[in-house]
Specification:
This protein has six helices and five strands, in the order H-H-H-H-E-E-H-E-E-E-H. It has 201 residues and is an alpha+beta fold. The chain folds into two domains: 105 residues, no CATH class; 74 residues, SH3 type barrels (Roll). The protein has a five-stranded antiparallel beta sheet with strand order 4-3-2-1-5. It comes from Rheinheimera muenzenbergensis.
Length: 201
């Protein structure tokens, strides 16, 4: 009986992530296709449109929007809908949570050179973290709670979009040569990925 249950659980661990990933991708592609296809058909002759063109147009549109944020005027324009969503009751929590998750996964709000190893006091154990704030910064709520030689370090959790923010002395950290986004991917996958980084001496 134990062999049957163990085999079932092992099989589910292999099959379910595949099914969920495929279904999420299928849902996303179908949503984009069904949403943009009518607009493209209004612009293009019917014979010119072929399935999948809406998805390609969506990718190109995202690239154009992303590139246009290099100019402050366009950046303000694209930020405006999000600011409105954050002020609307009921949608602010959902939009804010999704925005934070995407920015966390992309490492957008972390500066290069901010990845550190944090050594636990009285232990040889070290944790990979990302510096988010430094003490002594004026007009910053988090920084005002810290001493000048303290750092706020975000410690990501494996297999979970979350983590802890800890306040540690600078002496408890050492920098490692790794991009913040790479550190997030490495930690969230519990080190099972193929990412490599050299440690600064």
């Amino acid at each position: 009986m134990k062999i049957i249950v163990k085999s079932l659980l092992t099989g589910l661990a292999i099959v379910l992530p595949l099914i969920i990933t495929v279904e999420l991708l299928r849902w996303l592609l179908l949503t984009v296709e069904t949403g943009l296809a009518p607009l493209l058909k209004l612009v293009l002759p019917g014979s010119w449109y072929w399935p999948g063109m809406a998805i390609l147009a969506f990718v190109l549109l995202c690239m154009v929007i992303g590139y246009s944020t290099r100019w402050s005027g366009f950046n303000w324009l694209w930020q405006l809908p999000g600011k409105i969503m954050l002020k609307l009751p009921g949608t602010s929590q959902i939009y804010g949570m999704l925005q934070d998750i995407i920015e966390l996964m992309s490492g957008k709000n972390f500066a290069d050179g901010s990845v550190v190893m944090v050594k636990l006091p009285g232990s040889e154990i070290e944790l990979i973290g990302i510096i988010t704030k430094q003490g002594g910064q004026p007009d910053d709520r988090m920084s005002s709670l810290m001493q000048d030689e303290q750092l706020a370090v975000f410690i990501p959790m494996a297999y979970n979009v979350g983590g802890y923010t800890i306040i540690v002395p600078r002496s408890c950290t050492r920098n490692i040569d790794m991009k913040p986004a790479e550190a997030l991917q490495l930690t969230l996958s519990a080190g099972l990925g193929s990412s490599k980084a050299s440690i600064k001496k």
